[in-house]
Amino acid sequence: MALIVQKFGGSSVANAEKIQNVCRIISRTYDAGNDVVVVLSAQGDTTDDLIEKAQEINPAASKREMDVLLSTGEQISIALAAMCLEKMGYPAVSLTGWQVGMQTSSDYSAARIRKVEGSRIRKELDKRRIVLVAGFQGINRYGDITTLGRGGSDTTAVALAVALKADLCQIYTDVDGVYTADPRIVPNARKLDEITYDEMLELASLGAQVLHNRSVELAKHYGVELEVLSSFSGNPGTIVKEVVKMEKTYISGVAQDKKIARIAVVGLENVPGVAYKLFSLLAKNKVNVDIILQSIGRGDTKDISFTVNEKDEELCMQVLQENQEALRFHEIYASNDVAKISIVGSGMVNNAGVAASMFEALYKSRINIHMISTSEIKISVLIDKGDSEKAMRAIHDQFFD
Ligand code: ASP
Ligand code: MG
Known about the structure:
The chain is α/β, with parallel strands linked by helices. About 35% of the residues lie in helices and about 25% in strands.
């Protein structure tokens, strides 16, 4: 007998029929003799709808009250699922974040889990009950309701798996697992059997929205294996773990990020300390910088260009303009007509030619590269936004066909 944590996302519990489907999966797991702890998200678009309701009343509502409101979505799901299991003849109990002792920091709308006091859940499991826990929510030291940030139910599930020393943590969603690329853009993308935590973290931050980033960090830290799978298809999913068997492609996925902007600072002095001044100023203003490129100095001057998240573009330009005198540059330009394409794979560390192969695919498609950045498990290029989908397909074909 094992202890299994199963998390079901919003699309998996969107209506009565889907809740029944989820409860069949839960009951089968229970019938096999396992202890089952279930974490549920809010149904379908419930969280978005609740945000809209708040907007109608007070667009500047306090984060504390927003959390009281948003946490209700998950509470609906657990109660309905418990009722469904009751009807099917199974002993089930629904519990809120507060009832299971999900203790968090006090940052409303972005709380971090501090500790899970698991005794209530254990008591219920000892009575052979199926325990349904509201995802995404916790309680802070003032006894107030908090939420973990959008998509946070994944993190609830992993935190419970850690606290209860679960044997398995399954994240059920509406796709079969993690793919080599977004199948809507690359039709021949395929499902991965396995992926490492680090690759998953890179892909998540690159916009492959399968798992909440912090859930993967937490799983990596405590060595909890995750299985991402579909609640509809019954197919085996993707296992997320520390080490995976190496495929001959050496890479696990191709991802794009179109929500970026490139800033070019032209005519900086060619002396020590310039990059330090520029980037510490941006850091002080909480502008996150990604790829950085510095030109070779031409006599007295040099240029530095870098990318930022699209939402930081305005702030970044404003900060630079205000500090033109101190930074001593000639001109600045911004463009958001760019996209970042990345390949991710833990196998590229020890294999030459992966970068060349990526660049070859772009060359054959006549796509120009503006910037390049590499890490141990990732190579990113900046290209024109209009070329993004074409680049994705070309690079994917290069490695996976
Ligand atoms: N219901 C929350 C959201 O929509 C949390 C979650 O689904 O994980 O973001
Ligand atoms: Mg999600």
